[in-house]
Amino acid sequence: MSRPNKREVGALSDALARFLIGGIVVSAFAIFGGLFKPVSFAGLFGAAPSVALATLALAISKQGKAFAATECRSMMAGAAGLCLYSILVSQILSRFRLSALMGTLSALPLWFLTAFGLWRIFLR
Amino acid sequence: MTIKADTSGLKQTKWHEYALRFIAGGATTLIAGQIAKKWGPGIGGLFLAFPAIFPASATLIEKHERQRKQKKGLHGEERGTDAAAIDAVGTAMGSVGLIGFAGVCWLLVPRYAAPLALGGAAFAWLVVSFTIWAIRQWRRRFTLSR
Fold first, then answer.
1. Which of B78, B105, B127, B129 to mutate to test the interface with A (most CBs of A within 10 A)?
2. Staple partner for A93: which of B55, B77, B85, B117, CB 3.0–4.6 Å?
3. What is the pTM of this model?
4. Which residues does B24 contact at the CB level (< 8 Å), separation at least 6?
5. ipTM of the complex
6. Short-list A49, A60, A62, A3, CA closest to A22
7. Interface touch A53/B89, C-beta < 8 Å
């Protein structure tokens, strides 16, 4: 068996760093959000920029500011998708009384439609 | 309604539920990075606001609320679903803040050092999200008092 070369080791350590940093930041926001009452306020943390902070910090250091800025611009479309998705989930749960897992998974196509639609129309 | 810090939710959370969030968060960050590498930052950026952790969080909120009611001898199914629905409303308000985060980040990242740009954008998220939440609370109180 051949030994992995420097490039493969670099890619693996980069992936591991992304996984660990992402996991830590997302967990920290989730724990922080779980501290608060009422539920609607705690829910704000469901849209905390946890994945974005971890990813953008790494993108700025590895790929440069222009790359990260382009990601931020597209993220606006993704966040608009998240807004409509969350409203749909709330409506599905309160009107159709589905389980949270079923409600959140069944609304996912709306996120893809909104995010990619806005990106294609305004940002491409 | 005033904001209160309550640690009972943390005590209710089991270690495997923390692990689930850690793995979901780590995997999302990893996948978002891989998508940006393969298809470019335009597509990769969309996934910085992908609701990957939301299904797991909503399921935990539903479960915890149901268990809390069942401890009091109530059924708890309805309240669990209601709590998850209210949490989703909060997430919708937070995602308007996330649009603000992305916009501020887009403006600041090319001009300033990373900690300042990301810190400023995170502050913008907090201000926008909290303001929308406070306006909604004020409107609800105003409507109920009429």
1. B105
2. B85
3. 0.92
4. A26, B52, B53, B56
5. 0.92
6. A49
7. no
